[in-house]
Amino acid sequence: DVKVTQSSRYLVKRTGEKVFLECVQDMDHENMFWYRQDPGLGLRLIYFSYDVKMKEKGDIPEGYSVSREKKERFSLILESASTNQTSMYLCASSFEVQPQHFGDGTRLSIL
Amino acid sequence: KNEVEQSPQNLTAQEGEFITINCSYSVGISALHWLQQHPGGGIVSLFMLSSGKKKHGRLIATINIQEKHSSLHITASHPRDSAVYICAVFPNYGGATNKLIFGTGTLLAVQP
Hints:
By secondary structure, chain A is mainly beta.
C-alpha cells in the first residue's frame, strides 16, 4: 500500500514564524501535491510538483513556497505565517494520471 | 459558480437507508474520483471512473459523461459510513499533470 506521511497531525505556531510542513511518500510517485482544506471551500491546490526540483503554482500559492529536493519528499513553507493560514493541510502523491493518495493531514493553527 | 457541484451539502440518514450523493461538473473530464474523509482523518479513494458504473461492497458509483453527472450510492447504510464524501474530476485540459478539481463535499451522518 502507498504510504503518504505528514510530519505532524497538529501544529501551533505564531504569526510571523517560518513554518515547514513535511510530506514523504514511499511509492516513487513523480507527482506530489499540497492542498489546504477549509469549511465550505473544499480542497484547494496550493502547489504541486511533477518531478524533483520542479514545481508549479496551484490555485492559491500566495504566502507559500515549496521545495522538492528528493523525489520522495515535498515540503510546504509558510515564509511568514499569518492567522488566515490557519487550516487543515493535506499532502498527496500520484503516479501519472492515477488516483491520488493522501496523507492524514496537518491541522495548523496560527496564533 | 464552482466547476464541481455536489448535493446535498449535508445529509442525515437512518441506519439501513439507501443513500445517494450527487455530483455535477461543467468541464470536460478524463475521469471522476469519489473520495471519503472520516472526521479528523485523511482522505481515501473510493472509486475512479470514466464511464458506466463501479461497485465495491455496499458502495456503487455511476457516471453519465453526456450529462456531466455522477452519483455515489450507499446501500444498507451504517453509522460507520458517516464521513465527508468528496467528488473530484480530472479535467481534460492542462496536460497529464493529474490536477484535480474538487467539490466542497457532502457531510453524511448515519444515525443508529
